[in-house]
Design goal:
With 835 residues, the protein is of the alpha/beta class. It is built from 24 helices and 24 strands. Among the domains are: 110 residues; 152 residues, Rossmann fold; 69 residues, no CATH class; 171 residues, Alpha-Beta Horseshoe (Leucine-rich repeat, LRR (right-handed beta-alpha superhelix)), CATH 3.80.10.10. One of its GO terms (biological process) is defense response.
Length: 835
């Protein structure tokens, strides 16, 4: 017999919902707050219905839903009072508005933190037909704990945190514009094919083929963002880049994550195929669209592995430079017509939205033809001519005309693109930065901070990376790379570029590597190595012609690589980028011994491109000469680093790392290991609970960023000792409930960034002593209901970012802080991601 709480929950919801809908129309005084509550209730209504349905199917009582019912009952009482408060009773209006806002925030918080765990648990139970009785309760409790850990680790999106899940299968942003009747016709045809209902069970595969640079990927981005396509496939659209060496295991694991399912450990390609079929059967009740972008001829067989004949409306679109004989239908995307190419060229050569007349129409026509009428080449060449005079255009035409090749089209395209690099405004530094992009794997999102760290050391730029960031924008401006900003509220940050990524067309990456590989190995300034298994180049394996001039070295290894590393002499290397993947049998990755013998090494970037973190071995080789270290998706013993000697280290970053909570021994201290550290950055390190107290003894520390670490619960009480600290960033630390009182002593802090700290209840009473504070970001701090009076002393405070409800709290300080600008952050409740 189902407990009455389940039925009562539905009844409580309907009573509240009905009352809100009625009062929105009749009570003007509280209409704004009631509209927000109504929007939240609309979002959670399907979840409430599912809860009752699942509990009926499982014969389970709903005691666990009692807190939800109690909250809804409280809301009904609050909403009901709206009818009794006179519109002219301003004091009661103000107080009740705040109560309504707090209730709405409480509902959002409850459903975004509590309901996902129950939803995952229910799905797990129903899939195996388990009924919760007797002794099973304890086991389910343990499952819930495990599921909570998994939810935080994999989804990690408290209140829609800025980090888009690391699966990278969301459709990239659509282009601002497209040119060409051919493209429009292609969109119409592909749209019709995708919207066509499946006449029979089985996948429908479409190939879109064209030479590199024709705009195949751009076409699919545009298509996937169309309202009709999104309306049919909803969140079942997956955009999968397929590199030259695709890893099916990684792709399948990312597909599980994209669909918010528990990610399996996969030990073989056969296991990956099995898990893929299981996934497709699970999600195939609704239409599914899979885009396999840029499939190489050598990877043709991978397409067959994604075909599933057991689901009905399943569409696969393959983009490729090649036409695969056994896959039909095939859609050919042709180059632009001459007139369309000229139109695109004119758009791209335009500066600041002002139409620009080319020096000579004939000259323009000839340049366009030498660009093969390919969108990628046109964009790059046109942007290199922005604002140039007639002589420069003539020079560019001559360069494009020389060395015309009758080889394959890819070679011709690369030749055209290469000529666009020869001048770059006479600023060779931009070409250098472009070539550096080849240090990262094909089709990956390159963190902007990784590039900035590398460039700051290679080119001796300012510590904060302002010059490096300018170079990023220049590459984007010239269409040599795409600067991607996934987070819409990044303008509220301190321009640290923490949420920016750089992506590059594969042809441009090929060009960058081709430029890097000019000349003899021993004389190259950049050494980019992509190893398959343990197939080292002859010069390395035989210890001949060791690179003597390489300042930047990038080494990528696949899942078949195993140590030991051969020795590599790098006497002048200043930046080392290690990109690696592992298989499920390999739980560790050993840093190469030659790091210890590289006396000039200043920047080390280590990135694991496998799905799960891997333990980092040979940690002792890291030397005292390093200035910047960045780790991604590895297990590293940060709290045991006291044994290392990193006296020159200025910045260390951990992204999605397990940093190990092993306590330091009495005779080892982080502050002794890295006494000159200026910046500590930890993002998505979910096993981080607290920092060691001796962090506060690192006097030069200027920036402290602990973000998206959902178990991080407390800053060190002695944090006030960090006299030079300028930035305190605690974005989405959902377990953090308070800030230490000693924070008031941080008189150089200019930015306090605490958005999405859901459990933070108050700011320190004496925050007014932080006299340099000029910006506070407190959006999403749901429990922060009061502000300390000492805020009136913050005479340098210029900007506060918060929701409208919190802006009311700042109103009483406006007279004292006349230069304060309150930026309202308003986001409609969106719980679709919980479904």
């Amino acid at each position: 017999m189902v407990d009455s709480t389940g039925a009562a929950l539905g009844a409580a919801f309907q009573e509240l919902f009905g009352l809100v809908k009625h009062l929105v129309m009749t009570i003007a005084a509280f209409r704004r707050q009631l509209k927000k509550i109504k929007a939240t209730l609309v979002s959670i209504e399907p979840i409430i219905k599912d809860i009752n349905k699942f509990n009926d199917q499982l014969d389970r009582g709903s005691e666990e839903m009692a807190p939800i019912k109690e909250l809804l009952d409280k809301g009904k009482r609050l909403v009901d009072k709206c009818q009794k408060i006179h519109a002219l009773n301003l004091c009661m209006k103000y107080k009740h508005s705040r109560r309504l806002a707090a209730f709405n925030a409480a509902v959002v918080e409850k459903f975004q933190l509590y309901m996902p765990l129950l939803g995952v648990r229910d799905g797990k139970e129903m899939s195996v037909g388990v009924k919760v009785i007797g002794e099973d309760v304890k086991e389910i409790g343990e499952d819930l704990k495990e599921l909570k850990e998994w939810f935080v680790r994999v989804n990690g999106r408290a209140l829609q945190s800025e980090f888009e899940t690391s699966s990278d299968l969301a459709v990239p942003a659509a282009p601002d514009f497209i040119v060409g009747s051919e493209v429009e016709a292609s969109l119409r045809k592909l749209r019709e094919q995708l919207l066509e209902e499946g006449a029979s069970v089985g996948a429908s595969v479409i190939v879109v083929t064209a030479p590199g640079g024709c705009g195949k990927t751009t076409l699919l981005k545009k298509l996937c963002h169309e309202t009709a396509i999104k309306g049919k496939f909803k969140d079942k659209i997956m955009f999968v880049p397929i590199s030259k060496k695709p890893n099916l295991t990684d792709i399948v694991q990312k597909m599980y994550q994209h669909n918010r399912l528990e990610v399996p450990e996969i030990k073989s390609e056969e296991g990956a195929v099995y898990c893929l079929q299981q996934l497709l059967n699970k999600i195939g009740q609704s239409p599914v669209l899979l885009v396999l972008d840029d499939v190489w001829k050598e990877s043709e067989s991978i397409v067959d592995k994604f075909v599933c004949n057991d689901i009905k409306d399943y569409k696969i679109v393959v983009t490729s430079r090649y036409e695969f004989p056994h896959i039909r239908p095939v859609h050919h995307l042709n180059p632009l017509t001459h007139d369309e190419a000229v139109e695109l060229f004119r758009r791209c050569v335009t500066v600041d939205d002002r139409s620009m007349r080319p020096p000579d129409t004939q000259l323009l026509n000839e340049i366009v033809e030498h660009c093969k009428r390919l969108p990628l080449v046109i964009k790059v060449v046109a942007k290199s001519l922005r604002g140039k005079n007639y002589a420069f255009w003539k020079k560019k035409l001559r360069e494009l005309s020389e060395g015309h090749s009758l080889l394959d089209l890819d070679t011709e395209i690369l030749a055209c693109l290469r000529k666009s690099l020869d001048d770059l405004d006479g600023d060779p530094s931009i070409k250098e930065r472009f070539m550096d992009l080849g240090s990262f794997p094909e089709d990956c999102k390159i963190p902007a901070t990784a590039l900035i760290d590398m460039w700051v050391q290679l080119y001796e730029l300012d510590f904060d990376g302002v010059d490096a960031a300018t170079d990023l924008h220049e590459l984007d401006y010239r269409n040599l790379a795409d600067l991607v900003l996934p987070r819409r509220d990044s303008r509220d940050d301190d321009e640290s570029y923490r949420s920016h990524y750089v992506m590059q067309h594969d042809l441009l990456r090929e060009l960058a590597i081709m430029e890097c590989n000019q000349g003899e190995v021993m004389n190259r300034e950049r050494l980019i190595l992509d190893l398959m298994g343990n197939n080292f180049p002859n010069w390395w394996r035989e210890q001949k012609q060791q690179p003597r001039r390489a300042r930047l070295v990038s080494i990528s290894t696949d899942g078949k690589f195993s140590t030991p590393w051969p020795n590599l002499e790098l006497p002048v290397v200043e930046a080392l980028v290690l990109n690696f993947r592992t298989n499920m049998q390999t739980k560790t990755y050993a840093l190469p011994e030659f790091i210890a013998n590289s006396p000039m090494l200043k920047a080390l970037i280590v990135t694991n491109y496998s799905f799960f973190p891997v333990e980092l071995g040979n940690f002792h080789v890291i030397g005292s000469n390093l200035r910047r270290i960045r780790f991604e998706r590895v297990t590293v013993p940060f709290l045991s680093m006291g044994k290392l000697c990193l006296h020159d280290l200025e910045k260390i970053s951990f992204f999605m790392c397990d940093i190990s909570q092993a306590s330091t021994s009495n005779n080892t201290k982080i502050s002794d290991a890295m006494p000159n550290l200026k910046e500590l950055d930890m993002d998505y390190c979910n096993d981080l609970v607290r920092l060691p107290d001796d962090i506060c003894e690192i006097k030069p520390l200027q920036k402290l960023s602990i973000t998206n670490c959902h178990n991080f619960s407390a800053l060190p009480e002695q944090i006030g000792q960090l006299a030079y600290l300028e930035v305190v960033r605690l974005n989405s630390c959902t377990a953090l409930s308070r800030l230490p009182d000693s924070i008031r002593s941080l008189q150089n802090v200019r930015l306090l960034d605490i958005p999405e700290c859901l459990n933070l209840t108050a700011l320190p009473d004496q925050i007014g002593q932080m006299v340099s504070l000029c910006r506070i970001n407190m959006r999403g701090c749901l429990k922060l209901s009061e502000l300390p009076k000492s805020i009136v002393k913050l005479r340098n405070l210029r900007k506060v970012v918060c929701e409208e409800e919190k802006a009311v709290l700042w109103g009483s300080f406006k007279n004292a802080l006349s230069q304060l600008d309150i930026i309202l952050f308003e986001e409609e409740p969106n719980l679709d991601w919980l479904e």
